[in-house]
Amino acid sequence: MPERRRIAIVLKGYPRLSETFIAQEILGLERAGLDLALVALRRPTDSKRHPVHDEISAPVMYLPEYLHDEPWRVLRSVLKVLPRPGFWKALVATARDFRKDPTRNRIRRFGQAAVLAAELPPGVGWLHAHFIHTPASATAYASMMSGIPWTCSAHAKDIWTSPDWELAGKLTTNRWTVTCTRTGYEHLRQLGGPDANVHLSYHGLDLARFGPFEGTRSPRDGSDPSDPVRIVSVGRAVPKKGYDILLRALARLPDEIHWRFEHIGDGDVIRSLKAQADDLGIGDRIRWRGAMDQKDVLATYRSADMFALACRITPNGDRDGLPNVIVEACSQGLVCVSTTISGVPELLTDGLNGRLVPPEDPAALAAALSDLIRNPAQRHALGAAAEARVRADFDFHTSIRQLVELFEAEWKKSLLNPPRKVFFYVQHLLGIGHLARASRIASAAARHGLDITVVTGGLPVEGFPGAEVRHVALPAIASGDAGFSGLVDASGRPIDAAFEAMRRDALLDAFRRCRPDIVLIEAFPFGRRQVRFELLPLLDEIMAMPDRPRVACSVRDILQQRAKPGRDHESVDLVERYFDHVLVHGDPSFARLEDTFPLASRISDRIVYTGLVSAPPPPPPVETFDVIVSAGGGAVGSGLIRAAAAAARHLPDDLRWALVAGPNLPQADYDDIARGKPANAELFRFRRDFASLLRGARVSVSQAGYNTVCDILRAGCGSVLIPFTTGGETEQQVRAERLAARGLAAVVDESLLTVKTMTDAIRAELSARSRPDHGLDLGGAERTAEILAGLD
Asked: Which of 356, 406, 444, 563 is deepest in the core (most CB within 10 A)?
């Protein structure tokens, strides 16, 4: 048995009558031998509690529901976790999330996370959130602060009312997510893509608590006014339960049918439902019983003739998953009538083991109820089939076993295979291409179980590197101009020897603290000569170590042509002196290193091709544009954006244009473009869903940077490339010409860029009827991670 860790289970509130399935799961995990501590974001508000809560032995810790309720506790916690490196990582993540969700709740989750990280119950080595919305937010931030891994159980409302960007982020930064319906599972898998580890596990029932009903179901058929058919429903009176639809259906039942309806549960709209029932003239046939414990609910199932629940999707997307009360009712052989929403059809099949009708259709619901009321034999047959299905496939011991196996699989990985440590240095000076490619590699390495630290030396860029890796930011430097003629600090001042010494010492300190098994250096020695002042001392220290880490260079497939003689020989000498491997991020059928680096044969024994480092296939776009114009980081993209915006005026008005200017485009240029853009174009600084937008586009207009080209190839859209050639740059020109030779792009020379040449190129790509399959290997990130994991 692998080492077991104590798990802190983070809940929205505890205990709660409406979440018996969670209590049942907690008790099942305890009985399976797991050591648990419970953490709740809210104190209980229900006046009753289920017996299962009294059987749970895990201690409960309550976080401050509102930060102003316990300000000193929050302050003490923040001060305690402030020195931890993960605190700043969590703060950056919160700030990033706050920009998309500028609410007090976002700040509250950060404060609750700080309290959780500071006051973790003794021995906790794992965090698990129940619900992927607010509990998962607090848990994710606490995980960053504490360095403790986290996992998640997602259910229904939390999935369908959370924004896609937030779900995708959580799915790709936790260890795994489990959800309880196939519809939810498919949705989360699509959002998370290959980076997400999502599992389907139905909650099931503790069938020992819901033993078979040994009595006999009544033959009531609605004909006897002294013995009416008994219809029951259990659930909170909230819009997604559709009780207003159910009342309208009951009011439609024929006058000659005699029935009574009981509702169990509390909720926000009880008062309005009672008023509706009176208005419909059926109030005297309904009993509103309020919240009840599990024992009394079970007795009600056994005395009833039918169960009804009119599940629906509300305007904000809220909906049920597979309501546990339907599973409970089925376990008692009670026929259920519900709707074709979410996970309900995963248990019930209309006419086979229950009745299903479309949502929002009281007439169809009334017809199904009427048929069953009049036909007790059919009720009994469908109920028996439903009970058989539940007892065969919805035993909660199965879900408990799945959860235990998921936890233990993660613990076993860390016990048997301690993660190899990777120290990844990347320096971006002008654009963000180097940083974006390195971030994709780092994320893939983390998914492969590597413990990766990314050291960056450029100006910060939102979202890079990803939250799943450790990040050390050196004092920032950038190129003084587009020609890379000098280095400046974050304020634009030229750096001096003292600044270089400070950076060198910070880099060496980070390396010594990391104590890596592998050192990966992006570009150097084929590029980034400007930072020799810190990289050579690092490499010298590595070479002097008795048991040194392996050293590899991470380099793109097409290199800048050297203008000065001797530079290629110098690069080869450095590779031979310091580097064990040269990882070339390209497909050799498209470009080989020797094509742009003549001395590659001298180091051929070290060269490994990884494939192109592309992002995973993106989800479908949430909105579509015909033409996507992008300028990468934007530092040198003003002319391209302006020419494309002008070209839009010469092309059909019904085309939709997206102009993605880049985070580094000067604000004055951005404002000027915004004032002059045509009405059918939208201007953005940055689109995190850029790859998805390309998937829905007809044509992409961009420079020929490595990452943008990979995104275009992945999307399969038409492409107009304007390669960057300022300052003697050749790399993008070579890439663009090779793509054009394969029929994969049209190329406009930067020196010949005009509104007319831009317009003509876009028009030609829009009219292209077919495009060849590129056939290139885009799996470079995963392949690089595999190579790193296998280095001796």
From this structure: 444
One-letter identity of residue 417: N
Q: Which residue has the higher pLDDT, 88 or 458?
A: 458
Q: Which two tokens stand for residue 238?
A: 């909230």
Q: How many CB atoms lie within 10 A of CB 727?
A: 15
pLDDT at 522 over 70: yes
In the chain, count H helices and then E strands: 28, 28
Q: Is 371 helix (H, G, I), strand (E, B) or coil?
A: helix
For residues 579 and 518, the answer to whether their CB atoms sit within 8 Å is no
Tokens of 388: 């058989």
- Give the C-alpha separation, 653 to 166, whole Å: 35
Q: Are 18 and 29 in contact (CB under 8 A)?
A: no
Please determine, for residue 2, whether its predicted confidence score (pLDDT) is greater than 50: no
What residue spans of 9-163 are helical by DSSP H? 20-31, 51-55, 71-81, 85-100, 104-118, 134-146, 157-160
> Residue 262 pairs with which residues in a beta bridge?
232, 287
CA distances from 683 to 482, 670, 675, 738 (A): 24, 9, 10, 30
> What's the average model confidence in pLDDT over 673-677?
90
What's the distance, Cα to Cα, between the start and end of the chain in Å? 28
Alpha carbons within 13 angstroms on the beta-carbon side of residue 329 total 34
Helical packing angle, 164-171 and 85-100, nearest 10°: 160
Alpha-carbon torsion (277, 283, 287, 289), positive or negative: positive
DSSP string, 497-515: HHHHHHHHHHHHHHHHHH-
* Backbone CA torsion sign across 49, 51, 52, 56: positive
Question: What CA–CA distance (Å, rounded) separates 305 from 325?
Answer: 15
Closest CA to 625 of 773, 769, 762, 462: 762
The verdict on pTM exceeding 0.85 is: no
Pick from 33-37, 447-451, 488-492, 588-592: least confident: 447-451
Residue 78 has, within 13 A of its CA and on its CB side, a CA count of: 15
Q: What is the 3-state secondary structure (H, E, C) of 309-353?
A: CCCCCCCCCCCCCCCHHHHHHHHCCCCEEEECCCCHHHCCCECCC
Alpha-carbon gap, residue 295 to 436, rounded angstroms: 57
Nearest residue to 307 via CA among 174, 426, 213, 187: 213
